[in-house]
Predict the structure.
Amino acid sequence: MSESPQPMFAIEKIYLKDLSVEVPNAPDVFLEREAPSVEVNVGSSARTVQDGLFEVVLTVTMTAKIKDKTLFLVEAAQAGVFQIRNVPQQDMGPLLGIACPNTLFPYVRETISAVTSRAGFTPVVLAPMTFEGIYQQQMQQIQQAQPEPGAKPN
């Protein structure tokens, strides 16, 4: 009787892969008293580094504006190398698209807060989030992009 190997999920390394901060209208923007509108975009990607090792990158892009004047633009790419072994193929997508970004989010959240403060603004603290909904949206978009079986190409 042979036992199947136990599934393994481990964090090998967490690191800041890329960081960009722009304050294009300084110092004038520091004189503004109006509250800015803030737009936040979040995305993640995953790739195989070697057998059983995967890099997942969580990217947050934040733009703050007053009318058409940009106060700041911050983009942070928080990455991690994860060891994932003996996991069924159907479970890999949720691990790479949900569990890994959920692990990386607190790190990118702290980076955004620190960097907006260092740029001269009140620290921006991202609201807590989970990646189940984002993953499901991505899967729906992939399914919608695939042609129906038997459908003729245009």
Remarks:
- DSSP finds two helices and four strands in the chain.
